[in-house]
Each structure stands twice: as C-alpha cells, then as structure tokens.
Specification:
This protein has 1230 residues and is an all-alpha fold. It contains 61 helices and two strands. The C terminus is likely disordered.
Amino acid sequence: MKDTSSAFVALLEKTTDFDKDERYMATSDLCNELQKDVEIGPDLERKICAAVLKQLDDKSNDVQSIAVKCLGILVTKVQEKQVSDICEKLCDLILNGKQELRDIYSIGLKTILTDVSTKTGASVSTTLCGRLLIGIVQYSDQSVKSDTLDILTELLKRFGHDFSGEHVSIMDILLKELNDDRAFVRKRVTSCLGALGVVATDALLHRLVEHLLADVKQASSSDSSEVRTLIQTIGTLSRTVGHRLGRHLSTIVPLFLTFCGSPDDESMQNDTANELRENCFQGLEAFVTRCHTEIAPHTTDILSVAIAFSKYDPNYMYGDDDDDTMDNDDGGDDDAYSDDGDNDYSDDDDASWKVRRAALRVVSAIIGTRQELLELIYNQYSETLIGRFKEREESVRIDVFGVVSDLLRATVLLQPATDKSVKRPVLTRQRSCVDQLHSRVGTIIAAANKQLGPKTSVSTRCAVLSMLRELANVEEGRLGPYLDALVPNVFKALQDRNSSLKLDAILFLRLLMTTHDASHFQKHLPTIVPLVAENAKEDWYKIVAKALQLIGAIVQVVRPSPAMTPLSPNLVTFVQPLYNALLPRLQAYDIDQEIKDNAIASMGLLLATLGDHLTSELPVVLPLIQERVQNEITRIAAIKALGIIARSPLKLDLTNVLVDVITTLAQMMRQQSRTLKQTALDTLIALATSRGAEVSLPILCDTVREAAGLISDSDLQLSTLALTFVLRTVQASPSVAQDAALLTKALPNALALAASALLQGQTLDALFAFLGHLVSVHGFDQLFNELYTTPRPDATKHALHNVARCVAAICAKAPVQSQKKAFDLFVQDIGGTDVSQTHVALFCLGEFGRHTNVASFGDVRALILGCFQTGKASEEVKHAAAFALGSVCVGNMSVYLPTILDELSKDSGVHVYLLLSALKEVLSTKNTDVVNQYVSAVLPVLNKHCESDEEGVRNMVAECLGKLALLNPGLILPSVTQFCNANASVKTRWTAVTCMKYCMACSPDGEPMRHLTVQPIVNALQDENMGVRRAALLTFNSAAHHQAAFLKPHVRDSIVPLLLQTMDIKLERVVDLGPFKHKVDDGLVLRKGAYGCLDTLLDTLPTEVDVNAFAPYLIKGLQDHDDVQTSSHLILAKLTTVAPGTVLNNLDALCAPLDKTLNRRPKDTEVSSEVERINDVIRSALRAVDAVSSIRDADVNPKWKALMDRIKKTESLSVMLEAISIERGVSLEV
C-alpha cells in the first residue's frame, strides 16, 4: 500500500513539471496506474482529483486530452463524494471559467457521464441537473448555453430516471428556451426535449405534446421560425418516443402533412423549409414503424405525400435525355470503370435531396409494416418509383432502389402457397400484387439497365444488382425475354476492378442461371466462361468462392440434363476451360474453407454432368476428391460430390477409387457426427445402386455390418438411410443376403425396429421394402415367425400396430398358400386364450385385410364381433378388434360394410363406439370411389347416434360425418348446418359443430368450403351451452389454422369480439370433498380455448385482429390459470413482431404479472410433476420477456428495465434467459 501511494505521489509531482512532455507522460502513467486493481485512500483521492482537474487548464492540448481520458477512469475508482466534487467543479468552470477552455471542461464532464457507474451517477445526477438548469436560465452566453444543453441531454439519456422530480422544472425551462432567437439554442433545446420525452411519465409527456400542439395552433404564421421549431421538436419526440405518441396521432399527422406542403410550392423551396420537411418525414417514419394500429387511418395520406416528395427536386430539370445518357455507352476503356462520382450531378448548396431521402424512407417503412397497401402501391405509385431510378443524387438513388427492393421482398412473402406452406391461404389481393408486378417487369429492367452501365458509380450499380436479385426471386424464371438486354452490363460488372460489384454480379448471374431455362444463356457462354474463369483466379476469397459456385451453374447450362447426348460441338469447347478453372482450386491446400467446399462441389457436378468429355482427367480428379474425403475439414463436401458422381447417368469409371471410398465411408459410420453419417450413408446408397455389383463381397458385407449398427429407433432418419443402403446392397449383390453381416446384425436390428412405437413415415416404408425383398431371398416362413411369434409382453399399442404393418408387408409379397397359412394362424390366435397374442393377431388381420381380399380365405365377421363382448376381452383387444373390422372392410367393402351398418342400426349403445371406430377406418380409406357408393346408406346410421349420451360416441359420429363431408359435401353439409340451429337439441348441435372441425382439413379451395358458411360457428360461439361453445372454439381454431381465407371477412367485426367476451367467462364453484373443499372454474376451458384461437389468428390473419382492444385481455391472461398464462406468453411473443407499438404502450401494465410469474417458487411439499409445471410456466414467461426485449426502445421503460435487472441478478432466471436467447438466435440463423 505504501509503495502504491509513493508511486502516485511521485506521478502527481511530475504533473506540475515545466516540461509539457513530462506532464503528459505523468498523466498517462497515472491513467495506467488507476486502471490497475489498487486501493487509494481519501487524502490521495482528493490530491489526484485536484491534479487531474488542474491538467484541464494546461496550455498543452495533448495534456488536456490525456487529462480528460484520466477523468473517465478516475470516476470509477474514487468515492461518490469525490465524483460529486469533480462534477461540481467542472460545472463551475463551464459557467464561470475561461472561455477558451470551456470546450475541454464540457468534454470532461461528458466523459464522466459516460464512464461513471450507474449507482454513483444516480447519486450525483440531481445536483448536477440543478447546476445545469442554472446555467441554462441565468447565462445567455452562446457557448455556455450550448454546452449546458448538450450536457443536460447526455445526463437525461443516461440518468434521467434518477431525478424524475426535476422533470417538470426541466420541461418548463426548456419550453421557454424554445423561444430563443438563436437557432443553435433552439436546436439543442429540441434535442434535450427529445431526451426528456424518453424518461418522462406518460402524463408529463402528454402535457408536453399538448403544449407544443397548442403553440403551433396559436402561431401567427406557418412560415415563422417559431412554428418550424415547434414542428421540429414534435418530430424529434416522434423519433425518440414514437410509440408513446399514439394517442396524439390524429392531431400530429395532419399537422405534419400540412407543414410538408406541396412540392410545387415555390415559397417553400429553401433550406429552412427543406429542414422542416425532412423533420416531418422523419417523424412520420417513426410513427409508421412504431404506432402500427394508431397510424392506420393516416397511412394512405402519408404514402401519397411521401411519394410526391420522393421526386421533389426544384433545382434540376429531368428530361428525356437523362434516360439515355448510358444507353449507347460502349464502356470505353475498361480501366476507367467504377470511378465513383462519374455521371453524378452535385450541388453542394441544394439540400432538397434530404427531403427526397426522408420521404423514401417513409415509403419503405409503409411497405415493411403495411402489407395490405401493397396493391395500392403497385397500382398507383410503382411507375413513379421506377421513374426515380434516374435520380441525380447518388445517396437518394440508392434509396430508391432500396425501396423497390423492399417492395419486391414484400411481394415474395405474398406469393401463392408452395408445397412447404400449403396451409397458408391464397388471397386475391396477393395474386393481384404479383400480376401488377408481372406487367411492370419490362419497365423496371429497362430503367434499371440504364443505371447499370460502367459509367455509373459502383454504389449505384451494386444497388441495382441487389434490386434485380429480388426481382428474379419474385419472377421465378420469367425474366427470359429481357436477359439479352441485361446481361451485357452484368458482364461489364464482372470485369470491373471493384470487388463488391464483381461479387454482386456473380450472385445475380448465378441466380438467373439457376432459375431460368438454359437456352437463354447458351449463346452467351463464349463471354461468360472466360469471365468466370478469370474471377476464379481473384485474390478475394469471397469472389473466388462464388465464382466457383457459378461454374456449377454454368455446367448445368452447358448440359441441362446429364442424360442428354450427344453434346453439340460448340458446347464441348467449354468443358475444358471450366475444368481448368476448377482444378487449381481443387488441388490447393492453403485456401479458404468456402473455396475448398465450392471447388469440390462444382467439380463433382462437372464430372457428373460432363464427365463423358473428361475421361482422360478422371484418373487425376477422382483421387483428389478421395483424398479430400480423408480430410476432416473437406470430407462432407467431398462425400457429397462422390454421391453426385455416383448418381450420374453417364456411368463414369470409378474403379480406381471405388473400393477405397466405400471402405472409408464404412468407417465413418462409427463417427459421432450425425451429419457425417447421414452424408456417408446417402453416398453409399448411390454407390451401391450404381456400382454395387463391381465391389467384392467381403467389402460389401463389412459395410453392411457397419451400417446395420445405425438401424434403431434412436435416430429414424439414419435408420431410413441404413435400411435403404442394405436393401440396395442386397439388390446389387444377392450373396450379401446370406452373409452373417445381414443375418446377425442388419436383420435382427430391423426386426427390433419393427416393434418400436416410434416407427413411422419414411422409416416404416423403408422397413417394408427391406423385409419385403427378404421374403424372396429367405422365404416367408422364417421372417413371419420372427415378426409374429416373438413374445412382446411390454409392447405398447403403437408398437404392436407397427409389427402388424410389417407382417402385412411381407404377407403381400408371399405366395397365396403362405397368405392362407398366415390368415388361418391369425384366426386361430384371435379365438385363443392368450390375450397378448389375440391383440397382435387382430392388428395383423386388419393390416392384412386392408390390402388383400380375404373372402377366399374365410369369413371372420362373427369372430371379430365376438371380441366386442363384455367380459370376454380387455379394452385393448376390443379396440384392436374394431380396427381389424374396419381395416378388413377396406379391402372387402361389399361384404363387411353392410355388416357394420347393420350392427350400428340394431345396437342400442354397448358396442356403438367400437363399431363407429371401425366405420371411421373405412371412411379414412383413400379409395373414395368405392366409399361414395355407400354414403346414402351410412348417413342415416350416423344421424341416429347424434343424440348419444356418451361424448366419445358423439365425437366419433362427428369425425365420421366430417370424413363423409370431405367425400360428398353436397349431401352431408346442408344437413350438418341444419343441425346447428338453435331448435336442435344440445347434443345434436355439439355433434354438428364438431363435425365442421373435421371438414376444415380440406384444401382452401376444396369442395366442402363451398357448402359452408361462418354463421353456424359464430352462433355456436354464443350458444347457451358451455359444451357447444367449447366445441365451437375448437372448430374455429381449426378453421383459423387451415381456412384463414374462409374466416377473414368475419374476423374483425364478428369473431374477435366474441373471443374477447369468452375471455371474461369465469364460472367458479366449490366442490365439497368432505375433509376439504376444492374450487373448480368451469369457464377455464373456454378461456383457454379463446386465447388459443387468438394465438392462431395472429399466425394466419394478424392484420384482422384489433390488438389494442385485446391488450387488456392479454394482461388478464397473464394473471390467469397456468394454462391461460402459457397461451398469453405465446401471444405476447408474437405481438412483439405483429404490433410492437402496442406492446410498448402497455409495457408498464405487463411488467407486474410477468414479475409475479417469474417470482413463483415451488413449495417443499409439492410433487416433482408440480415443480416441473411451475418451471415450465416460468420458462414460458421468460420466452415472452426475451421477445419483448428484442423490441427497440423496450429498455427505455423504467419498469421494464427494473424487471430485466432483477432477472439478471437472479441466477436461476438469468441462466434460463440466456439459454432462451441463444435458442432464439440459433433459430433465426436457421
């Protein structure tokens, strides 16, 4: 400690040295010492503070600068009292010190505000604020006013919440200062008010805005500096607290639009008016982005004004000549390309470009937040935006291309549903937007092409190429007629010396080649191939990597289909140059990972597509790819390339690498990497299919043995690939089927997999194919016995069902006599006493009968129906019997369906549920033509049981009616709709509404939807019976998920208000259980259903939900039962993207219920399941918290900031939140 003090004392002495270099070095050393973990006493603290403050008066600028830096470090080391003294001293110096040093004092104080700890800063902020206000009020000096206002702004930004008692005084003083005659003062006051608005309470902010608006209305002249200042202040507030001004938008927006005026008003064509307009547009942009609901009535007016001002350029006349400046440019000297600033008009005194740029940003904000206006934008304003491609100011021109790119990107989101999203509705508006775009493609490309010439600046050309990529994404291969005009400028960009431009050109050209027909590019290959080969030699790794990818696209242009033979002589000439461009990059070791991967992938594609013209190069290339398989970094790409080559129809000679590759891939089955095993198996399948017969039996058997280890239910995808590989190997080399590798490894694992409850989908199909093929090799009896007779006492219903499916699959491949033998065994076991074997036999009989007509084998109707008898069988056997009866009926409809219907007609209720289950299996068949013949016979039987007392029976009737409705909607749905009427019984209404739920599974334009209306569902949501309401909620949820377009016209006005009413239903009653009483809420299930419906609507029809009306119900839901809370958390997370402004407006109210949930702690007496349930609710709340935290400006709210601080200080919550944030980050990247 003593040594440390001595060191500081020595440095302090040197800070007063006459030599400025000595003083500088002493202060610098003092900074370094303070940064160490040292303790300094109170006396030394005062001496150091005094010395550093004195250095601020030093004559040397260097010493002053290092002293300012030292202040920032010092305030983190000394006590609060010293920090307060330093701040007070600096305030005095700013107010009363030397004028020439005032800037240094100001910088020093700002440095302290930046570096001081939160706790210390909070303690000194009130005093500091008072001193600054004195400076603002009592001092008229220009520099004093300027510095004190700047410092107060910084103070409010960082510590504004800590001196809330001073906010009213600050506001009153600042409002007076807005009337100052000096523009620089008014500008700083405006910034300071913007910072105050962030930390002010809602009431104070409301008062501030009302005062500003009142002053604007009382102003004598709209052109006065006073009015402009007021408008700029409101604009600043809109940018800092946009979402909190929602209640004032009905006044502010018309005001802003009025002060924007008309672009043709010559009296406003000056810098002052331009600044005012820019401020108005910036404010409007903030409102559009942050006040989604409140701004809705004004968006069309804002859009109209913004588009008008996007072409506001009073000092420049655009003529037709501007459109042609680059039309006939031959490019000149290539070395002259990309000289920034060429062909750009510039006028340093003209600030109108700022107005145009601000207006364009408003348009971009509307495009990003108002998809419902896209059609309007295309219809009325797209031509104007395209016309602005000729904008003279480069920064504005780039923004124009950015706005059009945003428009195209939004249109991609509205493209008709693809196979990946067939559940999404295709709305007429979406189609109209795409059609509008199609009609303007020629205009867009013609205008963009004029800005793509070599005389245009690099930034503009990059923006054009970026926009054209978005256009190509939307048009999906329909740009063919325009490519001949477009590609010459793209080729010039490929020759440019600017790397960014080259990269954009490569990306665009590759996108064109992969989405358009090859014939459009074949005539350009003489130009493309040399250019790409040259780019593959570039120095920047990104260009090289993308050029190598482009070569892969060129290969598919040269020969779109590998089977296309022969290749024309003019195309053959390009094969060798492409190979020569790839080979050096394939051979190199010390290159970037992306280059390695792309070189391998493109070489594999080149060989697979054009390998018949590279036969002499195969001995060189294939060993190189094989070598890359051994490398841990490149092996995935190399394995994929080998797979592509193996699948090539050219049947290339792989003899010199085949055995080594298969051996290497077999060894990879033991690696930990799942991706590696998956890729290796995929390539092995290709090699076994195309070259399996050429590989020796021992190697194949060893590979099968390794692959067999992956056949298990722990990873079904790998199991699918492994089963497929073993099957292809056996097909290529039948001798493998007799080897121990298959008999002792692959087959036992496959049989064990057959008894897995997890088995499904592609894995099940692969297992069917594998076992079916083995029937012809090993015979039926052995496989049948292994599958059917093996005891499985602990197997679940799903596991036994999967075994039955496999038994049916091998029965289908067996001869008739073997099928008869199996059938007899099923019948024998069904009539036996072993319950477990009866269970299996019924499933097997059902699956066998589903695909085979068993009439010739015998009649099993009585046998199966006998299993329904009470007391003779377990419930599992009864349900298996129902499945067997329905499944056998599918393959033997004419015999078994009348039996089912007869039994249903005469059965009084004991076996109705089982018979309906059998009927459901029949109606689920894909053989709809056969079922249609029996619809008229089935319908009366189902109608008879609509009134059943058992809910399970009614639910089964509803499901059967729903399946019938999908087959014959014209006959079924009118009667179902009639059953929904109020005069029908409660049970009938429940059944009819539930039936509609199953009808929603059809496609959006399916036949059933033409016979349905929304009204029955709406009526059911208001039904007096709670059970019918619950059924209506489930039906509505299904409709919202599958048939959004069907509901859309009724959601806002009819359905959402009913859902909100349902959220208020609370039907609590007390159940007396003797020793204690239990409270039951019969309304919980309805509330949970209503929140679930709204959650679905936010996914499918977010624009139809009145989020502001729902906000109070969301807050209620966050305080409800755990199930409702979980739904509310999901909804809150979605609202952060759908309506972030509404979330921010209600953030104060949201904090309390979220905080209460996060503070829940399980009791010591609670069981583990209850503890886990509480933890699940807490995790759900944290997901909502994480989503809200991603909203811009959320951390400005003091209550939210306090909640986040409490979470971070609680170890268990902070760990969970960090994991959730990482999970969200990963999902976004994916």
